[in-house]
Each structure stands twice: as structure tokens, then as C-alpha cells.
């Protein structure tokens, strides 16, 4: 149980005092200089600040965001955490993330509601089944629980799923990943912010970076709408706006910004404990702790800097969703949104050192950013503190495109790109 | 359904089209450096604003050029590649 809950229970039992502590203590004035300036107060940026403070003793940090705390892609994903990727590089990376997620509630003293549900990647074609077998072999080799199961076993584990032959594309099997989980996305970011701020980190929202100051190939500071700040080191972790921010530093990235839409149904009683994904049908679904069905599909067909939602998305999503879960026909869509996803040519992130000295990047997350929050925080903090690319991040370095050493993570999105 | 106008086939549902990305000048592969070539292959301007980009009308395999605002999701103008490049021959190879 998270300590926060124990404290709450003990305090209310002993004193009848039900008030929890405030999450944040805002810091109104910017200082003229910081050891580290982090652009982007989402899960990733805040996690970097937290691990810099706790693992490397660096606390003179400002986290800047032009909007509000964790209001970008941290609030716009579908909260799934898993490690069943395809490449050894991807699996190793996410294995560490899953391990960090498991103890995150205790570490951050906030309930991130991490629950392991079991993750099913359905196969409707022989090709998809072959890929599932391939992924299961790589995962098992790397020590990540994954196996291929048939329709009878799927039905036993997930009784609400329709595995009958009487549909457009019957289920032939699935890659089953028992540690697949969901977590409360906002709480992850709030927890990192709260604990980083408790150690002296400043989080400045409504603070837009308008210019990045680079001198002789070295980043030295940023100009914001609240004045100029000097920085020993700068980290950018801004999800969909990566190209825009990087261009301020004179960097061009291998990234296209494409909306990824999602929606939730009205809340209902617990009926779906599992996370179900179909790459062939472009569908994924899980039920949140509030009872809402959280659903997503494929990325949009063209690049866009917008979080608008479209009717096409819902029509194509629901057409397939109703084959898998006919009972969904009774539910109303409650709300819908889009996140701006950074898509790289090899569906893998761009992390760590850049050609600009003291300028670090955490971008290119495409459709897999939330589940990487803790591991990116730990490894980016290590990279910033030591000035070297950590082993786990070497495959994801920006210079891989110069050497044609792409990662080729086809297991990246549940739904293809 | 969003409508896009193919310069050859007229107005069609946007689901009939495939996005080809921003138009960028290609360096001469015979004379450019390896770094210039990989940058051309992989790096994107990824402009937030008005861009000129390739689109394909898939049923008829017709490539053409659209000018589009990537912030407001508006298609401003579509034209054949001939029109685009004759108009901009001074700026693009």
C-alpha cells in the first residue's frame, strides 16, 4: 500500500483529520540561472527532474512548460504499460520501465493505481500469428513473460471477448503478456512533480520558451516569456512539439507530428479486466478504474499539429470494436481527444546527446511514451548528470540515422502506423 | 468526411488519398556527402504552419501537390506537380 494511504488511514483513525497535503508549492519567480533547465513539464520532463534530484544530487533545476503541469501527451494517452516489444533493444528498455512502475506508488508516495491486467495482442491472420510467435521468442529470451495462446485459452482468460468464427476477421490466436498493466497517468506526473519539488526543483508553468541560446555549438540558456535564464544543461522533453523546440536550437529531427486519437465510453461496472489489442483491426481497449472503456485506434493518415478528433476515427474504430465486444453497442462515447505523436522512421525514440553540447533530447515517442516515463526519467537523468549516453539509450541515439543503424521497432504501436 | 480536391479527378473523400510528406530539395547523390544524404533521407522540417507536400490519389495513382496548414487542418490549394515546379523552379531543384 502506498505510504500516503497508510498515513491518511492512520491520521484519520487517530485524529479525525481527513485533509491530505497540498500536491504542489508553486515557485513564483524565475532565478537568473539553473544547473539544469528542462523544457516540458510532462511525465518525462518531471521524471528527469526527480531522478536528477534523487539519484544524482542535482536540485538546482527549473522545469518550464508553456501550458500547465502534465497537460500535453501525459494527459492524452491510453495509460497502458507493457514490455512485449519486438526488438531486443525495445524489450530491454521497457522491461526496466515495468520494474520501475511496480514500485512507483511507494517511491512517489502517491497512488498511481498500477494494476497488472494481462495484455492480449490478437492475431487475425497467419502473418500476425507468426509475428506474435517471433515476439514471444524475443520476450522469453529477454526474461519478459509472453506466450502465444489459441482462441480457447483466450476465451477462458477473457470471457467477454467474441472469438466466434462468425465475424469479418476471426481471432486465430494472441500474444499473451501477463504483466501488461494500466496506471493513472496524471498521478504519475503529479507524483514526480511533488517529490521533485519537495527536493528543491522548481516547476514553472505558463512559461513558454521562445528561443534557445546556443554559443559556439554549446547551449547556454533559454529566453522565455518571463525573461532569460542561463542553464548549465538543457533537456527538451516536449512530445508533439519536438521539432518546433529543436529548431529553436538549430536542430532538425527525424520526426513527423501525427495525431493519435482515443476516446472513452460512459462508465459501467467492471466487465473487462484485460487489455485487448488488435493490430490487424486497429483497435485497443481497456477498462479504467472509473469504469470507462478506454479505446484507441490507428494514427491519423497525415501529419497535423492539432488535438482535434474526427468522425472517421470513431466509425472505423467502432466497426471493429463491435465484432470483438458486441456488448459495446450499448455504450455511449463520453469524450474523445487526440495526442500529437512524434513519429520517427523506425518507430523508436530519439534520446540522449545531441550535436549541441549541453543540449539533451527526449523525443520521438510516437505511440509509446507514457509507458516509458520512469525508465526515460532514470536514463535521461543519468545522461544529463554524466554527459555520456547510457548503454540502454545507445540504440536510441540521434546519430543512428547517420549510420543507418535504425532500430526497426515494428512491435511499437499496438495498431501499426 | 473531409474533402480534398485532386487536380486531375476533382473533389474526393480524404480517405481516398495518401499523404506523402513535405516537398524537400534532393541533394545530388553523386556529389553530396554521406551526412547530407542521410539527412535528406531521414530529417524532416515538420513545419507547424503552411507547407507544400506530396499527396497521392490512390485509386488512380495520381501524385500531386497540396498546400496545407498543419496547425488549422485546412487544405489551401492543390495543383499538379508540373504547376508547382514551374511556379517554383527558382527555389527548388
Automatic annotation (TrEMBL), chain A:
<protein>
    <submittedName>
        <fullName>Sarcosine oxidase subunit beta</fullName>
    </submittedName>
</protein>
<keyword id="KW-0560">Oxidoreductase</keyword>
<dbReference type="InterPro" id="IPR006076">
    <property type="entry name" value="FAD-dep_OxRdtase"/>
</dbReference>
<dbReference type="InterPro" id="IPR036188">
    <property type="entry name" value="FAD/NAD-bd_sf"/>
</dbReference>
<dbReference type="GO" id="GO:0016491">
    <property type="term" value="F:oxidoreductase activity"/>
</dbReference>
<dbReference type="InterPro" id="IPR001763">
    <property type="entry name" value="Rhodanese-like_dom"/>
</dbReference>
<feature type="domain" description="Rhodanese">
    <location>
        <begin position="36"/>
        <end position="80"/>
    </location>
</feature>
<dbReference type="GO" id="GO:0005737">
    <property type="term" value="C:cytoplasm"/>
</dbReference>
<dbReference type="Pfam" id="PF01266">
    <property type="entry name" value="DAO"/>
</dbReference>
UniProtKB/TrEMBL annotation, chain B:
<dbReference type="Pfam" id="PF04267">
    <property type="entry name" value="SoxD"/>
</dbReference>
<dbReference type="GO" id="GO:0046653">
    <property type="term" value="P:tetrahydrofolate metabolic process"/>
</dbReference>
<dbReference type="GO" id="GO:0008115">
    <property type="term" value="F:sarcosine oxidase activity"/>
</dbReference>
<dbReference type="InterPro" id="IPR006279">
    <property type="entry name" value="SoxD"/>
</dbReference>
<dbReference type="InterPro" id="IPR038561">
    <property type="entry name" value="SoxD_sf"/>
</dbReference>
<protein>
    <submittedName>
        <fullName>Sarcosine oxidase subunit delta</fullName>
    </submittedName>
</protein>
Amino acid at each position: 500500500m502506498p505510504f500516503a494511504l497508510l498515513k491518511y488511514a492512520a491520521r484519520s483513525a487517530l485524529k479525525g483529520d481527513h485533509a491530505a497535503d497540498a500536491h504542489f508549492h508553486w515557485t513564483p519567480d524565475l532565478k537568473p540561472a539553473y544547473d539544469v533547465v528542462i523544457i516540458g513539464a510532462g511525465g518525462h520532463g518531471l521524471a528527469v527532474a526527480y531522478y536528477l534530484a534523487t539519484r544524482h544530487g542535482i536540485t538546482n533545476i527549473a522545469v518550464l512548460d508553456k501550458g500547465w503541469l502534465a497537460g500535453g501527451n501525459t494527459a492524452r494517452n491510453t495509460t497502458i504499460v507493457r514490455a512485449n516489444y519486438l526488438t531486443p533493444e525495445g524489450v530491454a528498455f521497457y522491461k526496466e520501465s515495468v520494474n520501475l512502475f511496480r514500485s512507483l506508488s511507494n517511491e512517489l508516495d502517491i497512488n498511481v493505481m498500477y494494476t497488472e491486467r494481462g495484455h492480449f495482442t490478437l492475431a487475425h491472420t497467419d502473418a500476425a500469428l507468426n509475428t506474435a510467435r517471433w515476439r514471444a521468442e524475443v520476450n522469453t529470451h529477454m526474461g519478459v513473460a509472453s506466450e502465444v495462446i489459441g482462441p480457447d485459452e483466450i476465451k477462458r482468460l477473457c470471457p467477454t471477448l467474441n472469438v466466434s468464427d462468425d465475424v469479418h476477421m476471426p481471432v486465430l490466436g494472441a500474444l499473451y503478456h501477463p504483466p501488461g498493466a494500466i496506471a493513472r497517468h496524471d498521478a504519475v506526473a503529479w507524483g514526480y512533480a511533488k517529490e521533485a519539488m519537495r527536493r528543491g526543483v522548481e516547476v514553472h508553468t505558463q512559461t513558454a520558451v521562445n528561443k534557445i541560446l546556443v554559443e559556439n555549438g554549446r547551449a547556454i540558456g533559454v529566453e522565455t516569456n518571463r525573461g532569460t535564464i542561463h542553464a548549465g544543461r538543457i533537456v527538451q522533453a516536449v512530445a508533439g512539439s519536438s521539432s518546433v523546440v529543436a529548431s529553436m536550437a538549430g536542430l532538425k529531427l527525424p520526426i513527423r507530428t501525427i495525431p493519435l486519437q482515443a476516446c472513452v465510453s460512459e462508465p459501467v461496472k467492471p466487465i473487462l479486466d484485460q487489455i485487448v489489442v488488435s493490430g490487424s483491426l486497429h483497435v485497443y481497449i481497456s477498462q479504467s478504474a472509473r469504469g470507462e472503456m478506454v479505446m484507441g485506434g490507428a494514427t491519423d493518415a497525415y501529419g497535423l499539429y492539432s488535438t482535434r478528433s474526427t468522425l472517421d476515427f470513431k466509425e472505423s474504430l467502432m466497426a471493429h470494436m463491435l465484432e470483438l465486444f458486441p456488448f459495446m453497442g450499448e455504450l455511449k462515447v463520453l469524450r474523445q481527444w487526440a495526442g500529437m505523436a512524434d513519429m520517427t522512421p523506425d518507430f523508436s525514440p530519439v534520446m540522449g546527446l545531441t550535436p549541441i553540447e549541453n543540449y539533451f533530447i527526449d523525443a520521438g515517442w510516437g505511440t509509446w511514451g507514457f509507458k516509458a516515463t520512469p525508465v526515460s526519467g532514470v536514463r535521461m537523468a543519468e545522461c544529463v548528470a554524466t554527459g555520456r549516453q547510457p548503454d540502454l539509450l545507445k540504440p536510441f541515439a540521434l546519430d543512428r540515422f547517420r549510420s543507418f543503424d535504425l532500430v526497426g521497432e515494428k512491435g511499437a504501436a499496438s495498431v501499426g502506423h | 468526411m473531409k474533402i480534398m480536391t485532386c487536380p486531375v479527378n476533382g473533389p474526393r473523400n480524404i480517405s481516398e488519398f495518401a499523404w506523402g510528406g513535405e516537398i524537400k530539395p534532393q541533394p545530388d547523390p553523386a556529389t553530396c556527402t554521406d551526412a547530407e544524404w542521410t539527412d535528406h533521407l531521414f530529417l524532416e522540417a515538420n513545419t507547424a504552419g503552411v507547407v507544400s507536400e506530396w499527396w497521392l490519389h490512390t485509386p488512380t495513382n495520381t501524385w500531386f501537390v497540396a498546400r496545407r496548414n498543419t496547425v488549422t487542418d485546412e487544405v489551401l490549394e492543390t495543383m499538379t506537380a508540373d504547376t508547382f515546379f514551374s511556379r517554383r523552379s527558382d527555389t527548388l531543384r
